[in-house]
Every structure is written in C-alpha cells, then in structure tokens.
Amino acid sequence: MFNKLVIASNNPGKLREIGEILAPLGIEVAPQSAFGVPEADEPYDTFIENALAKARHAAGITGLPALADDSGICVDTLGGAPGVHSARYAGEPRSDARNNAKLLEVLGGRQDRQAHYYCVMVLMRHAQDPQPLIAEGLWRGEILRAPRGSGGFGYDPLFLDPLFGQTGAELVPAQKNLMSHRGKALALLVDALRQRG
Ligand code: IMP
After folding, report:
1. Structural domain of residue 175, as residue ranges?
2. What is the pLDDT of residues 92-123, one digit of tens each?
3. Domain count, the chain
4. Residue 102: Cβ-neighbour burial (10 angstroms; 0-12, 13-18, 19+)
5. Which of 71, 119, 150 to mutate to test the pocket of ligand 1 (most atoms within 8 A of CB)?
6. Of 44, 74, 147, 166, which one has the fewest beta carbons inside 10 Å?
7. Average pLDDT, stretch 47-60?
8. pTM for this structure?
9. Is-contact 67 55, C-beta < 8 A?
C-alpha cells in the first residue's frame, strides 16, 4: 500500500472533508495545487468519466497515486439537473451564492423538492492504471425554499437532511461526513483499498 496521495481537486470544501476522513488511516494527502497541477477539464456528461479524467491528469503530472471525486446535486423534478454542471450552474465565474439563487429560482413554488447529492470517487495508482478503484455514494434530501446555516459549502444551505432535520450547512462536520455522499463513497473506497491490500 502507498502512504501518500494527491487529491485531484482545488475545492477547499472538498479537500477539507476528504482530509478529515482519510486522516485516521495514516495516509498523507496533498492537494494537487501543492504540485502546481492545474484543474483538469471536465467535459463529460457523466460523473464517472469526469472523475477518471481528473485522477489520470493529477497522477500523470505528479507521478503519485491520485484520488479524484466528481460530485453534484441532482434534483428529481429537474431530471437530475444541475448534475455534472453543479459547480457552474449559474455560469462563470463559479459562485455558490449564484448557484443557490438560480436553483431557488428554477424550482420556484414547486412542491416536489426531492433531491440527492451524488459522489463518485476514483483512485488511480498511476496514470495508466487499468484497474482504478471506484466507489459511489448518495445522500438523499430535499431543497428548502430559503437557505439555512453557515457551514459546509456549495448547495449545503439549501439541502435538508430528513433524518437530522438540518441542512448540510447546519450539521457539524462529523455528522455531515457520516451522512454525506462523499463520506459514504470514501468509506467504500477505503474498504476496497484494504481488500486489495
Ligand atoms: P465538481 O468539483 O465538479 O465535483 O463539482 C461539485 C459541485 O457540486 C460543487 O462545486 C458544489 O456545487 C456541488 N457539491 C458537491 N458536493 C457538495 C456538498 O457536499 N455540499 C454542497 N455542494 C456540493
């Protein structure tokens, strides 16, 4: 097994959450920015294709094993949108505040506000790895009519977890990591990593 991983992301919210979850494993994680890796293109229509592209890009430039995630929020009544376009739903430059405002506007007064976050995690041992480890996670909830809470990032202030009755921005980090799409995908990835030895 290796003891150092590059994380193929520049999103501070994601980096913090992934670092928290992997810390107990004794694997040293470094963001790709520490190696001067620019953001990879994410041109694909599926999360998995984008995650593979990001991991391959970071592993190729750094020569280290790379962990990438691609994630987003999918709203049932919008046919799964914003989906892979979650980060830039309201266009460039990407802005959580404008994304949230657009989602509220698009949903308007609709009653059906069921949604889920989705995350796929990919670990490539090297850029030509023919057997990347892949794990996915889902977090079901609903979209509120107004934001609540100041933690988390992205769509968290609008995303209500039905079990806790709190938004992603109200949950304390340990609770969010337990419930979240990213936390679940990472836990499965870690299991797969242990099994592969
Ligand atoms: P990615 O960097 O292409 O995977 O974009 C993911 C985008 O989905 C983020 O920029 C957020 O807008 C949204 N997203 C993914 N996971 C979360 C989360 O845990 N909380 C809030 N928003 C999230």
Report:
1. 4-195
2. 999 999 999 999 999 999 999 999 999 999 99
3. 1
4. middle
5. 71
6. 44
7. 97
8. 0.93
9. yes
